[in-house]
# Entry
Amino acid sequence: MRNTGRHVQPEGSSSRPPGSRRRGALKLGIFLALAFVLISVALRLSGPYLVSSSVVRSAIASSIAVWTGHDVSIDDVSDVRFWPTPEVTLNGIVFSRTRGGEREVLGEVQRLSAEFGLISAFMGRPDFKTFRLERPRIHVVRGADGGLDWTEEGLLSEAVRAALDSSADGASEGNSDDVEIGSVDIVDGEFTLTDAASGASLTARAVNATIDWSDLSAPLSGQASFLVDERPVSVTLETPTPLRLIGGASSRIRTSVTLPGMQAQLQGLVGLRDARVDTLDINVRVGDVAQAAAAFGIRLAGTERWRTASLNAQVSNMTDEWRFEGLEFQINDSRGDGILALRPRPDERPLLSGTLAVEHLELGDMLQALSIQVGDRANVPLPALTRWIDVDIRLSADTASYETFPLTDLGASLIAKRDSVRLVIADTRFLGGTISARLTGSGEAFDQGADLAMNMEGINLGSLTSGLALGGGPSLKGTGSVSLNAKLLGTGWKSNIESMSGRLQISSDSGEILNFDAAGLRRLATDRAYFQLSAAGEGSFDYEALDVAVRFSEGSAEVERARIAAEDEILELSGIVPYSRQALALTGELSDIDAQTADTPLRFFIGGAWNDPVISPIPNSPTPGQ
# Structure
């Protein structure tokens, strides 16, 4: 039956109010906390009487030896304190091993501090964590197999091997007995890494670092700053699998590096033993290319005019090649993107191939990077890209330039090896028309020369001659075509043009020859034996057809034909042009087209400097009977 009456508290039930119970629990908590504090203080106060410094010294020496697998010696225990945290400080720690009957010193630490467990110390087996190493000097050898030859059969080495055996994908370290480490601080250290295969050595000085590694199975994070060749470097590193990383196996990392003039961030799956990259995101920013190049101690031909640069890419290992996908880069103010692949090849140099698109391309810089010394930019030739790798790349550029000449909508292909280069430029907008070119070079640094074939259609001839900066004198104006086939020898082509040989053709349907006044020339030729071309006047020679072909070699060009037809007269030239001396040695004839009304043709010699040559009329031969 349902009870509808008042609730009656059963006999024996507590009548103590809730507030009283809370106060009782609070008192108990305060008592327990106070007891814990008193016991902790009592243990620390009694520590110096219950724990021997010799026990701590022996224990930490044994602990270090167990960790590294090497012999450890300690000069003295300078301090053992128990308040506020139990800590031991040691002086003069030396790591060594015996090989071939001789003692080999691997590292020294001037001063080492470590915290230890109080309870474990009372039991005579203190455990240590949170280390501080002052002025350590460590020497590590990278063996021929890519491993770091420093630990022997110690705890760290065993944990590394266990981690390598327990995880194949780098996702977990396993238990590793959960040995507690804590943090490791390094103050004013020096680390030397020597590569056994090459004999190369790298020393980092003034190393200051902080490493957070709670236990062997835990992730590791750290940061460090140091000097390499007196240049400052800063590094941060995070990895969930530090033991695999130490063992050289593929491990996930996130790291950043700051060098003079540049910063880089890397994130992905890498292996240190064989420099393996499974996947890696790269983000590089170079704020000062010259400063960064000095920091690395390298300079590359073609980068002399680079001020800033950046690179973003996803690098992946595709079994037989490294692929750079999602590639984005910027050089100075020009952006670009594309995809590249770097393929190692047995007994050959690596091959870099792919497709790149850029906003702007400096053709002169690209030629410099391929060892093609167009000018004399440096007294000492810089190493070229083709010293280390072969190249097979397709290029496109919204705009490009060579010297003062602009190009647009450029498309090119480049195949470059140590002893040969083939550069092909397809139909590209140039000076109002199009240009196509093919450059093929051979020999180490092109000491066997190069072949150049160039064809220009519908270009502005005035812009061409102006850009060539010929130094004054007559010049062309109009629209026409230019064909050039040349053999180039040696380096520094602009200052060594005597080594060029080949053939040049120019044709045009209409235009004018500036600073060539035909009427003034006829007038002065009637009574002067010679005169400067400029004295004839500043008029121009308007033509309706121009056809010029010259063959050149050893610094001089031979005019095969030069016929310039105006509306009512024709100018024809023959002779040689010693272009290496910017001179002329030509014979010219100016004649009327209409033979019925034609005056006697004017024949003349043009000689001297081409900026203002001398005209010397050639007398007409007397007719029979005169």
Notes: Confidence is low (pLDDT under 50) at residues 1-14, 36-50, 375-380. The CA atoms of residues 212 and 620 lie 100 Å apart. The chain has nine helices and 31 strands. Residues 18-50 form the longest helix (33 residues).
